[in-house]
Design the sequence.
């Protein structure tokens, strides 16, 4: 996959992009393994059935992971440095959900060359699952970069 | 591994806990795979060598993942529901760093039964890599839960 890096000077308030990705059973297992987050609400169907969610839910931080991917592959693109992440989890994602992470540039901080973006994550039914903000340093120059498909 | 769930009524402002975990090469690859974040600053040594970091850095969201694990396995423990995550990335983590994620209860929101915690992530040299806040719903009751070692 190729992606274009958009440097600070080329970004405009209002620029937007979306990143679409399914959350699979394997993603939840891999996230639990790499993080050490073995919360039974994510892994244990019997435990999760007793909660108000009435079944397993996806780790909220997997939504943060999609935001990170959206920044790195869509806007501002490869080479972006993530400075600050905030995300409010409004409704749970379920395994098999196809999430759409929408980014929009809301502020250019001229003296520091930082950019702030709003974040909204929706599921395939257009339900808003999470909203937040990201502060980043955009990539240093405009270039097309070939990204690893299977890291 | 066993972990104890601490419900709202048993939590006190000032309660604290730490979660320690190494970030491995495999974690970075697994994170890239599950998120789709194939930013070359994390995966491509040649690209990363040209950045101000002079080498590959760990995805910031892996620090969020450790925070999630700290909440789920340490304080308030298994069954915790993550409502809001904010994290400021101050210095990059490197592959092989052993991160210590420290949580402290800063506020109990009585009417909603939510709890706010401060978050600080340090590396093995005690350098602060990230600071932030977490808002959670603690587990419903005090219980000891056996967590999956290999999800």
Sequence:
């Amino acid at each position: 996959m190729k992606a274009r890096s958009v440097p600070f000077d080329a970004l405009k308030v209002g620029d937007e992009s979306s990143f679409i990705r399914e959350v699979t059973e394997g993603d939840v297992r891999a996230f639990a393994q790499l993080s050490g987050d073995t919360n039974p609400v994510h892994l244990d169907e019997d435990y999760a059935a007793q909660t108000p969610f009435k079944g397993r839910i996806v780790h909220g931080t997997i939504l943060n992971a999609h935001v990170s991917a959206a920044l790195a592959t869509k806007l501002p693109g490869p080479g972006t440095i993530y400075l600050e992440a905030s995300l409010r989890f409004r409704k749970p994602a379920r395994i098999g959900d196809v999430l759409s992470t929408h980014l929009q540039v809301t502020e250019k901080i001229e003296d520091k060359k930082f950019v702030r973006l709003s974040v909204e994550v929706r599921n395939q039914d257009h339900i808003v699952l999470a909203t937040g903000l990201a502060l980043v340093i955009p990539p240093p120059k405009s270039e097309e970069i070939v990204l690893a498909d299977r890291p």
Observations:
- Chain A touches chain B through 54 residues (CB under 8 Å).
- Strands of chain A lie at 2-5, 16-22, 81-89, 98-109, 114-122, 128-137, 143-146.
- The first strand of chain A starts at residue 2 and ends at 5.
